[in-house]
Amino acid sequence: MKVNLITKEEYLLSNRLKDNLDEVFAFVLNSESIEDSSINLSFISSKEMQELNNQYRGIDKDTNVLSFENQDISREHTKDLGDIAICYPYVVNEALEANKELDSHISHMFIHGILHILGYDHESESEADNMESKEIKFLSKFNIINPYTI
Fold it and tell me: Across the beta sheet with 38-44, what order do the strands follow?
């Protein structure tokens, strides 16, 4: 289980978070009965996120996280599940506004992105309930409180 981390120097990620990303990823995949795989995680600017969100979702504004499932035939051989983009300035602002610890919030966004790649969604109330309950369960393993009750 491997997280390929792509970030810029100015985005301050704690060493603890960097160390925990592989563990979080492995735990989610093991819980979902998925064999050895990798994922690409990029921390990007608001401008970059706005461009991605506009290009792929037709929404001309930034957002906290976007996921892109690897649907290429190489997936079977490379075990690369896809790409997750987290907008660093956006999640920093969200954490500050909600008085959340930044590493915990980033871990939540990472798990949220992984679940999207694995086919979970929140388009309907029942889908949202299912996805949120998985997020809460996975976060609790890392002593992160339920982000939906804050």
Answer: 2-6, 38-44, 80-87, 65-69
CA pair distance 86, 106, nearest whole angstrom: 8
Q: How many Å apart are CA 137 and CA 142, to the nearest integer? A: 9
Give the HSE-up count for residue 25: Cα atoms under 13 Å, Cβ half-sphere: 26
Would you place residue 140 in the very low, low, confident or very high pLDDT band (cuts 50, 70, 90)? very high
pLDDT over threshold 70, residue 22: yes
User: Strand, helix or coil at 137?
Assistant: helix
Please list, in sequence order, all residues whose beta carbon lies within 8 angstroms of the beta carbon of residue 92, skipping any fewer than 6 positions away: 102
Q: How many domains does the chain have?
A: 1
Ramachandran angles phi, psi of 72, nearest 5°: -75, 155
Provide the CATH number for the domain around residue 100.
3.40.390.30
In a domain, 147, yes or no: no
Residue 132, in any domain of the structure = yes
Tens of pLDDT, residue by residue over 80-129, are: 999 999 999 999 999 999 999 999 999 999 999 999 999 999 989 999 99
